[in-house]
Amino acid sequence: MDVDALGAPLLQEITGAGWELDIPVITAQQFAAKFALQPNQYAWFLGAGASASAGIPTGYAMIRDFKAQLFCQETKLPRREVDATDPLWVERIDDFFKRQAILPPTGDTTEYAKAFEAVYPSERDRRAYIDSQVKLGRPSFAHRVLASLLSAGHTPCVFTTNFDNLVETATTVAGQLLEPAKRRNLVVAAIDSAERAKRCLAENDWPLLAKIHGDFQSIELKNTEGELAEQDARMRAVLVEACSRFALIIIGYSGRDASVMAALNDVLKESASFPGGIYWVTRSPSELLPAVKELLLTSISKGVEAHIVQSQNFDEFGGDIADVVSLDEVLEQHVHAGEASPIVRPVPLPTHEALDALILRCSAVRVLTLPTVARRLLLQKPAKISEIRKRLSEAKARATVAVAGNEYAAFGSDEGLLSALAEFGPTLAGTVELNPLAHSWALGLLYDALTRALCRGRPLHPRLQARGHSVLVSAGYPNEDEERLKKRLEALSPMKAAYGADLHGNIPKLGCPFNEAVRIRLEQAASHWWCIFDPYTSVDLPKEAEESTDGEPSPGEPRSFQWKPSPAGDWLRERWAQRYNKKWSAIINAWSGLFKGEGRAFWLEDGQGIDAVFQIGAVTAWSRPSHDHPYFHGGR
Hints:
38% of the residues lie in helices and 20% in strands. The chain has 636 residues and is α/β, with parallel strands linked by helices. The radius of gyration is 28 Å and the shape is globular. The two termini are 48 Å apart. The model is unreliable at 1-21, 215-231, 353-357, 546-563 and 627-636 (pLDDT under 50).
């Protein structure tokens, strides 16, 4: 059954769609409003991602550094000649480790620990390395927000896997701004001082910072595979006890440590667990690991309020919290003192005397979230991308592929990829990061996936072509049942009202099928990604007509000397001639309304492969002319 024309609720009913539909997803602003009601009822759990904006290298960056050092040791190359941030060196290093059995595969949950221990077998050396990395950081905006909450007594405790002292430093600074009577002193406990944390729990002596993997100054640190495998029993007990008293906010943490995830699951065995809920903050639900999904689903099954909170990073999340919580004026000033000036500022609308400065509505909507990784695919037998796409099409595989250097990147069903490309000897090799600004293949892969995602679960069809992709209004399917027809018409009713005409049919006299459509582009502007859609009417001409004409040029496209008029040209011009500003605005509104929300290219279930998940904003872009245009005055 083709599901392109089905709505998401019906799709879930038919296919048992993924876990995301079972776990509530809310925005950071929605969570912040809830948090502001009782901030002291929430404990926090910070992972490495919370220190990234403060200048501390992430686990991924450290893995790259470890791999570069091991590579140099094995190949006898000088370390100064190898740049672990250069894509060419990254590719060469990755190729080396694929052929060697030194480290786990890229993306393996033990990769960080194994690489760290391989480079620094000595515990003393590992501690020295962590010390050198910690010195690179300084508290970020979100650290100031959290520190202000701790100093003012609005947050009881923070747990972290990080070794740095960013929270302590920020809290010391914030606390000194308050009068002694209002100041709460932070208690810091690491795995070699867990008794301190137990005392805080017993005496309700808040606030507490519990460093469950140790402090950079601790004798005990947990960063090798053996150390991470079994969490310190005392600190684990503190974490479990705290989570039976407070709701929990988890941010910047991947869920890779089996011991920490086991402790969180142990909380669910208690009669009281996560009162107020558990809130996992992430850029995109699709990035969550299976262990995290399982924890959240188990929480819901036990009656615990569990949510996925979407936020781009720790600083943005901290900004949403800072917007709604009440702090002393001195702390408010401290929090916002170092806040970066916004790139885009609100601009007042023109006064009555300046109405000639028109505001233009653009046919573009924000792409709030883009996929960040795709499946890495290796082929034993080289193949052209045209051959690969042909095999995928012939096998009707739910997948799309792009050439990424000597490898391939793909979205879609793992089984479908392996089956359709069997003749080329395919193997799955973890994931590959997507950087569409640096790599054209990544932009092309995302462009293909976005076009599919805009259609999947909606009454639309994708048309992928070398000269540009389009999205067409669906005309339905042969033998379409009554229920499906009803849902399709309901979904298209706003668009039918906007166009004021049939959205598909046959052109009178010619008999050629037509569909209202938009041409799709994926572009970055003003530091954001945008889905640009240009409305047009698609006409399927007979083969002989297509061979005798180059078709009607796109709006703004120059007419080449080979151009011959399309047989449908007069009909198209008449159809669009009377669509002025008000009609155009309605059409743009109808398309953006249909696109908004989550779009998934393949609607894969958990474990079937890597899907391409996009979050599309509901508000279209607006703009003003950069300078005065005489033809604006007195025009239509």
